[in-house]
């Protein structure tokens, strides 16, 4: 006859023979699965099927931990009927009602978790901003974990399988260990949600439209944020594999034996600290028991000496202890190594990014992200290695010690309290993440607003906009403080909930321990041991929440820095790239096509050749592609089709560094470093001696002007060279190029913004640079290129005309019209007009 409890116990008996009644345990466990897991899962599955949107397969990322989740779920699914068949037929040779109830509840629960797990993998709720599993799924796995762990309190009961008295107990014990490992893995991995797709990569349309650099567009459309940096959403543990991969080289200082020894000693100090933490309360207990029961003075004195020695090693309060002091001292060099490596690698990576990215960045936000990101790496490593891992080790040691020395009840109290504490910390901190991330975003905006305003100081003054800028900056700060308040308020809530959990656990444990002391089971020293150890354990545990929050905050601070690392180099050297060796100094464009945006071509099948030592000029209206040709030859961008050759060698097959060492550029807008004039000129060749710098300055006709300054060559030029006039900056740029001594010279409208007199002097210096060099000139004033060997007229990205100055005038085409228009401007505005040529050749030609 099938009965509900069978012959193992009855439902009303809760505690039998030092353990739970199996019937009561399975009834409560099955009910927990039904009401706390199956019902919430049903609602969540129904909600997902009604409201979730499918996710395309290309946005699904497979990972080891995602596959591990599937393996564990399938293992649990197989184990459940196997356990039912073995446990109640082959092992105990009976079936009762409670076992059927427990089996059905567990089987339904596992099927539903698999269904919801698959739904969360393949669909997304539009309002869900965090990359995590639903609370219903996490709760169901937490219930399974609680059911498997709470059975430990029946360790000493004869009614359970722990005694291994026959083969059935061994099988049941093995299945229990399997279930415990599986649900523990499921619960821990669920906090990272490796298989859940991210929302930002799927829903947000990439609106990155790059600027046609020559087209005079007012603004550059950015990514969702600026500088190619996206706005993160979701858990900060998303992409943890990539983050650890980036951090790992800095955690282990490869190539530096001394620092590696430092790391090993630091780890040794951590291990020693765990041992010390265990024995400090034990020796304190021995002192109390010795004083209580009148042990010999030598014994008490020995225990006190050992206790004080261990306390010295451990430290306490605001003192870190001898072990922590040694560890902190040795870690300084490792920390400095990490900081230096991260910053230099990121700095090198930024310089390797394309011109397109640098045109779209916001300098203030990029610098702010770099500062926060590099600072957070050191903090992150310190928290993980010296705070989180030791705290976890202390918790595991405490649970094992309490179970072994006291009994399973104390281990259960510690385990439940710590489990609730960690769950509360993780869930609330994940909820708080959006406040911290929003605070960072608004902090970036406030700093960017301030930097933009200061960089454009003159413009602010020109338009009397000081009050406007202050008001905008104040608005940005108010906006930031609003998010800061939410972040800090949620932190107060988290601290209150953590304190409640800790003190409830301390209360229950103290009452239980005091009861055992009164009953004579424990000694007074055991109560002191429990109180000392639990407080010692809760102190780092209390900081565990802080550590976790700081790790979250540091990951958030690092997100924008990781975004910078994620920016791919648009122009890369081929794996088999060769070093360019220049011989005859020729340049050739062969059917070159290029566009900044696919829908708007800039160059269309452009072909021309510059023979060695010749000068070719590019003219045409704005947006016709003149400056683009300069940038393509310097390989700031790669072309879509066609070939660019130097000495009959395709420049895409050579290294960028070898290509650029032969090319000198004098840009239209010269930007100088905030350094002295001498170093700004020396930038053309950083190994040049002072005499070579002065020779280059003489050739650029700026030596005498520099000597007239009070500080001579040590004169500081100010930020972006603002202390120098336009002509002086151009001459410094020319001196740089002369010092570089390139084989190819690119002049990008180098005199278009200068007055006629200055232009004439600058033009003479440019002629010196170009002598014997292969030169390409982008010109606005046609009078400056009348002596060019070939003039190319570009219009709508195509070559409209090509020839010498005289040939193009005789052709009576586009160039002739441009020449006539500039002569008319000279007549209307006068010889000294900054926009006219004002050149003697202009007047002579006009007379003709």
What layout of secondary structure does this protein have?
Elements: H1 22-51, E1 53-54, H2 64-91, H3 97-122, E2 123-124, H4 135-150, H5 167-190, H6 200-203, H7 240-251, H8 257-293, H9 297-314, H10 321-352, H11 355-360, H12 363-406, H13 408-455, H14 457-462, H15 466-518, H16 524-566, E3 587-597, E4 600-610, E5 615-619, H17 626-633, E6 641-646, E7 649-650, H18 656-660, E8 663-666, H19 677-682, H20 690-699, H21 703-707, H22 726-740, E9 744-748, H23 756-770, E10 774-778, E11 790-795, E12 798-803, H24 805-811, H25 814-829, H26 840-847
Parallel strand pairs: 5-10, 5-11, 8-9, 9-10
Antiparallel strand pairs: 1-2, 3-4, 3-6, 6-7, 11-12
Helix pairs in contact: 1-3, 1-4, 2-3, 2-5, 4-5, 8-9, 8-10, 8-12, 8-16, 9-10, 10-12, 12-13, 12-16, 13-15, 13-16, 15-16, 20-22, 22-23, 24-25
Account of the protein in words:
This protein is 62% helix and 8% strand. It is of the alpha/beta class and 848 residues long. The chain has four domains: 22-190, no CATH class; 208-220 and 246-566, Up-down Bundle (ABC transporter transmembrane region fold), CATH 1.20.1560; 580-662 and 743-804, Rossmann fold, CATH 3.40.50.300; 668-741, Rossmann fold. The strands form three sheets. It has a six-stranded mixed β-sheet with strand order 8-9-10-5-11-12, with helices on both faces. It is elongated and about 115 Å long.
